[in-house]
C-alpha cells in the first residue's frame, strides 16, 4: 500500500456548502470547523496565472461573464466571487494558488489540488499547476495531492513534478483504471461514490491504491464507504460530517 498521510474527511471546494466555493473565505470556514484537508479546483487564466475556479466560465460563481481562459488574472481578480452565495461574502475573490498555499499553511490544512483545465488547456494546466504546487508547498508535510479528471493533465503533472503524489479522478470508472493509474504512478483513485461497490473498493485497494470518494454528503453513506475501506471522503456537508466523523 502506498504512503497515505491524509485525513479521512476532505472539505469539497474549500468549505463545502457553507461558503462560496474555491475562495479564501471557504478555506477559512473549513479550518474553523476543524477540517484538516481541503479540495479545490485550479486552472489557468489567459496569462497563465493559476487560480481557483470550478467551471469553465465565471458566470455561476461571480458577478462576471464569459470564459475564464480568455481573461487575464487582472480581470478575474476584479470580480466578486462571494455575493452570488451570500451578501455576507461580498468582495470574496477567485484567489491565486499562491494565496491558497499560504492560507493552507496558516491553518495547517492538507491540500487536494484538483487540476481543472479549461477546454484545450490540459497539458499546460497540468504542467504549470504541478510546478507551482511543488514550489509553493516545497516545505509542506504532507505534500499536496494532485488529481484530475484529465489524463493528459495528470500526465503533464507527473512529468513536471514527479515527486508529488497523484490521484486519477473518475466520474465513470473505466475498465482500464488499473493500467491508467499505473502509467501515471498514482497513489490513489478518486471516484464518484455512487459508482463504488464493496467489491470494486476491495479490487482497487488490493491493487495498492488508496481511494478518495466524492461528493459524499450523507453520513450513513460516509460510514458505509469507510467500512468498505475507502480512505477519504470529499464532502460538502462539513457541518455534519466533521473531521473526526469516521475515525
Ligand atoms: O475532486 C473531487 C470533486 O471535486 C470532483 O468533482 O466537479 O466537484 O470538481 P467537482
Ligand atoms: Mg473539484
**Mean pLDDT figure:** 96
CATH architecture: Alpha-Beta Barrel
Number of strands: 9
Structural class, by secondary structure, is alpha/beta
Please, what is the oligomeric state? Answer: single chain
Uncertain segments are none
Bound molecules: SN-glycerol-3-phosphate, magnesium ion
InterPro entries: GP_PDE_dom, PLC-like_Pdiesterase_TIM-brl
GO molecular function: phosphoric diester hydrolase activity
Pfam family, one: GDPD
Protein name: Membrane protein
Describe the secondary-structure layout:
Layout lengths: L8 E3 L12 H9 L4 E8 L5 E3 L20 H4 L20 H11 L2 E6 L6 H15 L8 E4 L2 H10 L5 E5 L6 H7 L4 E5 L5 H9 L3 E5 L4 H10 L3 E4 L12
Parallel strand pairs: 1-9, 2-4, 4-5, 5-6, 6-7, 7-8, 8-9
Antiparallel strand pairs: 2-3
Helix pairs in contact: 1-3, 3-4, 4-5
This protein binds SN-glycerol-3-phosphate and magnesium ion.
Task: Offer a few descriptive terms.
binds magnesium ion, alpha/beta, TIM Barrel, 247 residues, 9 strands, single chain, binds SN-glycerol-3-phosphate, globular
Describe it.
This protein is of the alpha/beta class and 247 residues long. The protein has a single domain (9-235), classed as TIM Barrel (Alpha-Beta Barrel). Helix content is 30%, strand content 17%. It is built from eight helices and nine strands. The protein has a nine-stranded mixed β-sheet. Strand 5, helix 5 and strand 6 form a beta-alpha-beta unit. Helix 1 runs parallel beside helix 3 (97-107) and helix 3 packs parallel to helix 4 (122-136). The longest helix has 15 residues, at 122-136. The protein is globular. The mean pLDDT is 96. Magnesium ion is lined by residues 39, 41, 114. Residues 12, 39, 41, 54, 114, 147, 169, 190, 214-215, 234 line the site of SN-glycerol-3-phosphate.
Amino acid at each position: 500500500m502506498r504512503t497515505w498521510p491524509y485525513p479521512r474527511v476532505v472539505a469539497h471546494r474549500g468549505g463545502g456548502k457553507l461558503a462560496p466555493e474555491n475562495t479564501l473565505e471557504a478555506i477559512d470556514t473549513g479550518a474553523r470547523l476543524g477540517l484538516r484537508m481541503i479540495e479545490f479546483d485550479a486552472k489557468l487564466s489567459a496569462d497563465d496565472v493559476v487560480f481557483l475556479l470550478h467551471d469553465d466560465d465565471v458566470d455561476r460563481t461571480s458577478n462576471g461573464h464569459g470564459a475564464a481562459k480568455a481573461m487575464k488574472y487582472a480581470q478575474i481578480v476584479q470580480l466578486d466571487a462571494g455575493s452570488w452565495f451570500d451578501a455576507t461574502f461580498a468582495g470574496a475573490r477567485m484567489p491565486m494558488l499562491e494565496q491558497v498555499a499560504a492560507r493552507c499553511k496558516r491553518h495547517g490544512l492538507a491540500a487536494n489540488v484538483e487540476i481543472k483545465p479549461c477546454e484545450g488547456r490540459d497539458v499546460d494546466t497540468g504542467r504549470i499547476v504541478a510546478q507551482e504546487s511543488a514550489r509553493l508547498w516545497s516545505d509542506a508535510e504532507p505534500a499536496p495531492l494532485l488529481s484530475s479528471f484529465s489524463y493528459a493533465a495528470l500526465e503533464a503533472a507527473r512529468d513536471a513534478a514527479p515527486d508529488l503524489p497523484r490521484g486519477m479522478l473518475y466520474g465513470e470508472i473505466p475498465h482500464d483504471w488499473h493500467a491508467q493509474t499505473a502509467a501515471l504512478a498514482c497513489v490513489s483513485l478518486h471516484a464518484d461514490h455512487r459508482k463504488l461497490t464493496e467489491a470494486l473498493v476491495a479490487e482497487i485497494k488490493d491493487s495498492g491504491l488508496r481511494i478518495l470518494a466524492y461528493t459524499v454528503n450523507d453520513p450513513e453513506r460516509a460510514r458505509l464507504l469507510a467500512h468498505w475501506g475507502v480512505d477519504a471522503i470529499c464532502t460538502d456537508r462539513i457541518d455534519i460530517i466533521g473531521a473526526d466523523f469516521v475515525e
